[in-house]
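Explain the record.
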Amino acid sequence: MASKLVQLQSKATQASHFLTKHGGAYYKQLLEQNKQYIQDPPTVEKCNLLSKQLFYTRLASIPGRYESFWKELDSVKQLWKNRNELRVEDAGIAALFGLECFAWYCAGEIVGRGFTFTGYYV
């Protein structure tokens, strides 16, 4: 166990040295590449304005999302009505989608329990 701790400390030290050497340059490069998204001057008022713009823009998009949801639901209803004509490929895609949703649910449950598989802290 002690050797694992020394190994972990060594890796952490290497990562720390890498970040101190290359972190500043990466930060500057990242800001330079994305300067079109930076608001100047960076004031509290500007941040509040952008926050409100994001909130109300998302709020304004709800009717469009609502309409899209009902269109999607109608297409699923049509597929269900014509399920006799359903191809194997379509059924396979639907099964994979359901399996993926279940897997994300399970992953969320595991994360929610603090990455324990039993739900108990040992």
